[in-house]
Write a structure and sequence with these properties.
162 residues; mainly alpha; elongated
Length: 162
């Protein structure tokens, strides 16, 4: 008696799989291990994120604490995607995130102060920076430092997982 015989290949395709040309495996992803480029990208991202964060805070005349987390996340993500998984990128991303959140808050205060005093924002930033830091010091509270910590944590997490 004869037994049923399955042809080699995919049993659901209805026949044998014809051999294809070239390598049947996907190429390995490129190695991202450029720490210098990752640091540069994180620095540029930190400056842009600080400007956007401060611009939004100044436009609505209020600080958005949760946006600080997004600032840290974006900085870490860019550093990790561009520079690879080097642990130094996570640490530097956290430092850049802290600086970006602080500068964003100062920029937001400068926008608000410039409107109230009838000055330009650049004049507030460059000529009255000590006044901006005094206003920031008077307005800081526990939540300010919580969002600083969360921004740094988001930066580290994003850099490690990118």
């Amino acid at each position: 008696m004869s037994q049923s015989f399955q042809p080699p290949g995919n049993p659901f395709a209805g026949g044998p799989v014809p051999p294809g040309p070239g390598n049947p495996f996907a190429p390995a992803p490129p190695v991202r291990d450029n720490v210098g480029l990752g640091l540069a990208a994180a620095a540029v991202t930190a400056i842009a994120a600080a400007a956007i964060y401060g611009g939004i805070a100044g436009a609505i005349e209020s600080e958005i604490g949760f946006a600080a987390i997004a600032v840290g996340f974006v900085i870490g993500l860019v550093a990790g995607k561009v520079g690879g998984r080097n642990p130094i990128l996570a640490v530097v991303s956290a430092v850049f995130a802290l600086a970006a959140v602080y500068l964003g808050q100062i920029f937001g205060i400068a926008i608000i102060g410039a409107e109230e005093l009838g000055l330009s924002t650049t004049e507030m930033l460059f000529d009255h920076f000590n006044l901006l830091t005094e206003v920031w010091n008077e307005g800081k509270e526990a939540m300010t430092f919580l969002f600083f910590a969360l921004a740094a944590f988001a930066a580290v997490s994003a850099a490690k997982k990118a």
